[in-house]
């Protein structure tokens, strides 16, 4: 008998690839259903893999699988990098995860980001650049007029920051911290997987993974299309938890976070410094917003998170107006160059961090289902940890074992054990 496991029945039908917004500096496109695979030795012997989810984790996995010679189809229900992978900060750090469970994943990924940037012309195609990271405190001003010339005059604080800034510390250098534009990174990688390594992209909602006698047989899309495959990688970010089978095994949930993207009138004065702030509003609790100027002159600011139900349609995720207003207040109190009027508002948005019960990503083969792999739960470090996750899953699927990092810490089997103990 064919066993199936499926996503929530309440999910909407097919969604289609939206036009990719052209960036003033970077511009790429992703072809759907490419028909130009690179020459293959013998397609019969190639491993056929369906990767579900077109966020950074699915795309990195598809890229490294295709590069290894697998026949890859990536299925995305909306558009590539439409969710957290397109709305994240894109900050990368070599050693900020040291001492924790993702240390090896983060270190390997940071180095892979550097080599991918060389391979894919990262500075031009997706804004890769090393940068300095600073932390300091900002105290909100009572005045409703734009802030100006109030910083402590400390030489560590870049001159464009004229809000009330105190206690600057350098917490990352150009050797240890870097950034990418996450949406452009994800789309560039997938574009390369399609054009150079013959991956195929299908826009459709994965509805079921069919399993027969403990083995994956195919993926069924909403609308009935069936894609035969011996291996399936589920990289659905916070939507992974909507698959019935996983819901009984582990919890993947979403933490909603907000961001705005500003375009200052005078981008040349904005220096390459990632800012990690302790922000003290006039009323209410302190916050920890993050600020990432980009090589394009844009300034990205994020913060304001809360646990909320993840809507089925990623395109339905909108920011809460009060949270967006708060981020604009933060911007105004950092710099007079970021007040409305001095800076255009390019985006007001929200997205969901994919989180797990134990705050550790879930990467590995699903216990009891041969050929079914899961890769999710990267929380606030998915853009950083995408590359090593992609290499590791590609190795696991094609070679049966990951060598780039030890995946045992991330195995979904850890939850099966827990469940048995609890019963
Ligand atoms: C505000 C914010 C700032 C962040 N900043 C950083 C940062 O600076 N550095 C960093 O490393 N990380 C950062 N992150 C974290 C990072 O964005 C995430 O960890 C990462 O994007 C998760 O990628 P993903 O591929 O797992 O999930 P997602 O990006 O959510 O992708 C999942 C994809 O699956 C698709 N999908 C869902 N269901 C189906 C289905 N049934 N069929 C087909 N497709 C489906 C969705 O449409 C979506 O495209 C940030 C996150 C947030 C929210």
Automatic annotation (TrEMBL):
Q: Which InterPro entries match?
A: FAD-dep_OxRdtase, FAD/NAD-bd_sf
Q: Can you tell which superkingdom this protein's organism belongs to?
A: Eukaryota
Instruction: Tell me which residues make up the FAD dependent oxidoreductase domain.
Output: 48-396
Q: Which SUPFAM superfamilies match?
A: FAD/NAD(P)-binding domain
- Does Oxidoreductase show up as a keyword for this record? yes
Query: What are the record keywords, sorted?
Result: Oxidoreductase
Stretches with biased composition (Low complexity): 142-159
Please identify the protein, giving its name as recorded: LRR receptor-like serine/threonine-protein kinase
Organism per entry? Hibiscus syriacus
